[in-house]
Design a protein that fits this description.
Largest sheet: 5 strands, mixed
Helix content: 40-55%
Number of domains: 2
Mean pLDDT: 87
Structural class: alpha+beta
Shape: globular
Radius of gyration: 19 Å
Strand order of the largest sheet: 1-2-5-4-3
């Protein structure tokens, strides 16, 4: 980078891409700049200065956006992206710490039953709604196939029973049959 490269105008993105980026940012950071600043400081501290604050903020924003838009949100895929985006400044262990920090997961995202009732609910192990809701839809796709091809989503309801919070998805299968999936969302319900 040249001495005066910062004076060059940045290329303008098409308005539809700018709008989409704004939508993604609202999902990733509903608390706005205050949330970004707090999480950047937390990430910087977690990494014990391996990245400077600017690099920590860039990693935070990029990885959270990836967690929203990526088809493959697997731990291996996200950790690979973290390692690549930090140009070798982080170890595999440090990248895993970043993944755990950003997703609130360390281990399987779904456990429990088959989701056929509250008693057999699929338990979502996440600390943020972004990861938790995505895990619900991923689970339904693993069981029922491709959305809008093999099934369509009907009604979605929130329920509270016995001190637990549930998200109940009603699914209409291609053959016309109906299925309900109960997800225990207590770990992340009401959390950003």
């Amino acid at each position: 980078m040249g001495l005066f490269d910062f004076l060059k105008p940045k290329p303008k993105l098409p308005p539809e891409i700018v709008d989409k980026l704004k939508e993604i940012n609202v999902i990733a950071f509903p608390g706005g700049q205050k949330q970004i600043d707090e999480e950047t400081s937390q990430l910087h501290t977690l990494l014990r200065g391996r990245l400077n604050k600017e690099e920590s903020g860039k990693l935070l924003r990029g990885t959270k956006r990836l967690l929203i838009i990526a088809q493959d949100k697997s731990e291996a895929r996200i950790i690979e992206s973290i390692l690549r985006s930090t140009n070798g400044k982080l170890t595999q262990h440090e990248a895993r710490l970043v993944y755990t920090f950003l997703t609130g997961t360390s281990g399987p995202t779904t456990t429990g039953g088959d989701g056929s009732s509250a008693e057999k609910a699929v338990v979502i192990n996440a600390t943020s709604s972004g990861i938790g809701v995505s895990a619900e839809y991923d689970y339904v796709e693993r069981v029922c196939g491709k959305r809008n091809v093999d099934y369509t989503l009907g009604m979605q309801m929130l329920r509270s029973q016995n001190g637990r919070d549930y998200d109940v998805l009603e699914i209409k299968m291609k053959d016309g049959s109906m299925r309900s999936f109960w997800f225990d969302i207590t770990s992340f319900y009401g959390k950003l």
